[in-house]
Amino acid sequence: MKAIGIVAAMHGEIAGLVHEMGTDVQVHRIGQRDYYMGTLHGRSCVVVLTRIGKVAAAATTVTLIREFNVGEIVFTGLAGAVAPGVRVGDVVVAHSLLQHDIDASPLFPQYEVPLLGCSRFPADAALSARLMQCARDYLEHDFYRQVPAQQRSTLGVHTPALHQGLIISGDQFVDCPQEVQRLRDALPDALCVEMEGAAVAQICHEYGVPFAVMRTISDSADDTACVDFSAFLEQVARVYAHGILRRFLLGIPSADANGHPAVSRTAHR
Ligand code: SAH
């Protein structure tokens, strides 16, 4: 069984995962990234920080595939809300991903990756369905226990919702309402914007590796976007990512509200 690649763009998210892998971890340093090889919740994993932006994410993804021969990739991280119904604290699982800043027109249609003939890269349906189920179960059963009411209120996270749809990526941090409106007008089905997911998607498409992407909404991509990222990462996004990935890796069936691995623990491996 090949290892699963677990990828995040920001340090706060992988530090805890690496800690949970325990002492039996091999660290491989390649191209200024540390790849942590070990076992997480019973599954062989390679955990790595992509760093921020599409080039950084693409380079890391190629290394995961070529050097570590991972069989599938799951990418977690933060994103700014674009669709009106998406709020801070919500979780978005990608149905497909697009690079909103790629434009080689008139040679190729806007958003199309030249020579690939593709602008929207679909995430793997089965992996994404499992991630959706784990996120739904996490938000219903674990979230209110793990993030205390006071913390939820400080960070403005009340009743987190789960969405699935288009995630758009570009090499810009979006923090103005005009830009959000421009993105909404151009790509009306975009749920959220971030800086890496579509690059991971393109590389996985080129290598035929199944992948899924999950984003926690950290801001509204407008002039309030300069939230305290480190507090949000530490107190919400990291907790979500761990809780959801735990269910994902253990293959916890949705009925198990207590999070105990049940008989079918290996069913998804
Ligand atoms: N102030 C932060 C900036 C992080 S960049 C710092 O100094 O560390 C934002 C990260 O979160 C990127 O990895 C990106 O994928 C995601 N992200 C969150 N909100 C975003 C937004 N509004 N626009 C673009 N990317 C966003």
Number of helices: 7
CATH architecture group name of the domain at 77-250: 3-Layer(aba) Sandwich
The rounded distance between the terminal residues' Cα atoms is: 8 Å
Query: Main β-sheet: number of strands, strand sense, barrel status?
Result: 5 strands, mixed, barrel
Low-pLDDT residue intervals, each spanning 5 or more residues: 255-269
- H and E string: EHEEEHEEEHHEHEHEH
Rg computed from alpha carbons, rounded to a whole number of angstroms:
18 Å
Strand residue percentage? 25-35%
What is the name of the CATH superfamily of the domain at 77-250? Nucleoside phosphorylase domain
Mean pLDDT: 89
**Total strands:** 10
Attached small molecules: S-adenosyl-L-homocysteine
Query: What's the CATH topology label of the domain at 77-250?
Result: Rossmann fold
**Approximately how much helix is present in the residues?**
25-40%
Query: What is the CATH class of the domain at 77-250?
Result: Alpha Beta
Query: Strand order across the biggest sheet?
Result: 5-9-8-6-10
Gross morphology is globular
Structural class: alpha/beta
Which features would summarize this protein structure in a list?
10 strands; five-stranded mixed barrel; disordered C terminus; 7 helices; binds S-adenosyl-L-homocysteine; 269 residues; Rossmann fold; alpha/beta; 25% strand
